Amino acid sequence: MSTSTRTPNATSTGTGANPWRWRVVDIVVAAVLGVAVGLLFWGWNVVGGAWFGAADAVTPGLGGVAVGIWLIGGVIGGLVIRKPGAALVVEVVAAIVSMLIGNVWGVSTVLSGLVQGLGAELIFALFLYRRFGLGVAALAGVGAGVAAWVFELFYGGSPNILKSLEFNTIYLVCVAVSGAILAGVVGWLLVRALAKTGALSRFAAGRELAREV
Amino acid sequence: MTDATPARVQAAGWGWRYAGRKRPAVSDVSFAIEPGERVLLLGASGAGKSTMLAGLAGVLGDADEGERTGSLLIDGAAPESRRGQAGLVMQDPDAGIVLSKVGDDVAFGCENLGIPASDIPARVAEALEAVGLEVPLRRPTEALSGGQKQRLVLAGVLAMRPGLLLLDEPTANLDPEGVAEVRASVERVVDATGATLIVVEHRTPVWVGLMTRVIVLAADGGLLADGSPAQVFAEHGPALADAGVWVPDQPLELPVLPAAPDAAESVLSATGLAIARTSRTVVRSGLDVRVPRGNATVITGPNGVGKSTLALTLAGLIPEQDGEVVAASPLAGRGGRRPFRWTSRELLTRIGTVFQEPEHQFLTQTLHDELSVGPKALGWDAARTASVVDALLERLHLSDLALANPFTLSGGQKRRLSVATVLAASPEVIVLDEPTFGQDRRGWIELVALLQEEIASGTSVVAVTHDAGVIRHLGGHRIVLEQAS
Amino acid sequence: MSTGVEIEEKVRGAWLDGVNPVTKLVLALLLSVPLFASIDVVSGLVAIGLQLLCLPLTGLRWGTVLKRLLPLVIFAPVAGLSMLLYAEPAGRIYWSFGFATISEDSVSLAIAVSLRVLALGLPTILLFGRTDPTELADALAQVAKLPSRFVLGVLAGTRMLGLFLDDWRTMGLARRARGVGDRGALRRFFSMAFVLLVFAVRRGTKLAMAMEARGFGSGIQRTWSRPSQLHARDGVALLGGAVIMALALAAAVALGTFRFVWS
């Protein structure tokens, strides 16, 4: 939908030609979304942190089920802003904010946010930043989840490569499914509902819904 | 302040249509504004005033975001190429402040325009003095009051030495003190620099003394009027008042309710009450308050004195720090007579609360569902719910928006919706926090009339407000909170 | 009068305040990533100890640091739990049930991991306890040469955090008032999260408009009223960080507890 258009009078923002260039509103909204999502992460930490520990003790790797929410930043960023790097920026800002408000992982949070954001970003890039439907959103969630799994294999507080194969396989499946649903589907629904409020009128995500209605 | 050359603005058949909308927001607007003129821009809600100012500031976006027609020139060039020559101040001060310290924020515009770093401190000092904001440069911007924040935004704009000042409802969210501060600052600035001024405001009595010209945008394109204030108000006074503008000398046709009789029984009361937002900072203590039944109780006082906190405490949402809020016995719930002890469902039918920002209360995707939330929580069946909802929609003139998304409504409609959601459960007491904030004349009249209706039918109304008109027309009992010494 | 890298007004000027924020970022990474190489108790302990020795340099008070460390201390055992139960079994096996196996190896790994949670969290607390976000942004744009549009755009956006916290609290009260405050905490969370996102997008859009109206992002070469530079102190700080890491890992090797993570 956002094909490159030629502007009659070249504006000093120079955004007319390149649909992949970030406007100021893209940058600021990505940042603010990151802050809001980071706040939600911190709130969810209370719920999810406990679930993680408990689920892990009961069955190995099942703690991965709660991970999905932490991947939602990338999906939302990619779906709203729709430009290269959006998923990455939102997830990283969210990670930084949730770290600063006070979570336990320190710098690892930002590193894992980076990796997770990249995972989602890769999926959006694969589709050339042109497809943003439910399927792509779910895939982006899976992408972020798998990236997180790989990262935690080697880094993080307790590298999983030292744990058994069963643990890691179960964890991978859980994280992928959680990413697809809690990040992908929920993220897609959230963005759609956002568009219906009219708040996204300066973004393609908002305008395409307006045409449908 | 030197160097700011007042700008000349010329519009010829200018229009803008946002991408994705069928009808243009503004169309066929033509005028010529001479340097140094002071223009009041009026029009009904939706006539495109904010769009006009955004266009003048050059921030409407590129071809992806909408379509332009005609031409709009500031000193002969397109606004987009003249960023920094037009300074924009918007309604919401929090969205206009960029950095977290006063000095940094004022310097922001200068930095963007490439002013040499050595010149910036002087400009910052100049701008802060021009608006009369005497706070240290290191003061955190969060700590400023509403009026101070708007003046800070104005200073940030002035530091760029613009030839054109654009103010979009700058005082809408301010208390009377803040309004006076901003108004005085603007007058000072315009007198000192002679910059061209365009103001959008529906609170005209405050500004009309400063203006030399009034332009009225018509809702369906073009201009309704363009001339001196006296002329425009004389010709179009009543039409403008109907459209929501507070035109000077247009009387309000609303009754003035009398003061509450001392003998009226209290539906809520508290003695030795201490209130706080969080358990650490007690805002007020030793308060003796009562809410008489079937009357309005108006809570007034200066900014920050604890009015909202008191209202929310009386409404049973915030715990009392000391003393207890006691409800009249017919209202008692299973937990007793203290509202804070009631469950959420019990609270619904006893005390309804309307928050300052209606969107904090919205839960669903359509108006119809929104109004059904209360009834559903109470377990009413579908038929009863439907009849109550339909009646409310009728009463508040929202019927044709039954399926719209609450977040897409205008400010006045959102306010009416949030009041309607409270009325759905027919509570005994309604608590409202600044109900007329940001309302134009029409919304204001509808709301006050609605409250008067409720009072007449026996509901007790508690309203926190700055608005002298509300205080006058609701009568009843007054709780005046003074600055703690 | 205008702000600079020198901070006159902070309660007690600290050595670390004179270090450029970009250097602090590199330091934070420097003090964390090498620890990933080995999971053992010694390297974690030495790293924590040496860093705590540097506390006077940061200008933070013991009370503040301990308070911020508390959530870490509480959470560390939880992290260790997973390692305790599911690490590849080695050494004596103490207990086994289903997939879970507690072995000698997993116990020592669990302890090391719990310690590492502390060692990884500590640098952030020490380094960024007193950093001003604006200063950080200035440094990122001027020293690290990141695009100023991005850095400042993100900085402006992050100012909204305080507002969101207020919004969250008010929404909680509003839901109680509307009769839905008794049950369904999860549903409430999602409904409040949604409204928060609406506010986020709206505020962001308005802020972007205000920034653009003040000439932001317009392609003019911008100037900086708060210059950010590197000084000799930055080199000293980096050197210090490298020394701490070297000592920690060396201690582990010397005491024979070094255990490469991929072994």
UniProtKB/TrEMBL annotation, chain A:
Pfam families cross-referenced by the UniProt entry: ABC_cobalt
Q: Which domain of life is it from?
A: Bacteria
Q: Which UniProt keywords apply?
A: Membrane, Transmembrane, Transmembrane helix
Residue ranges spanning the membrane: these are 20-42, 62-81, 88-105, 111-129, 136-157, 169-191
**Signal sequence interval, chain numbering:** none
Q: What is this protein called?
A: ECF transporter S component
The scientific name of the source species is: Microbacterium profundi
Native organism taxonomy: Bacteria, Bacillati, Actinomycetota, Actinomycetes, Micrococcales
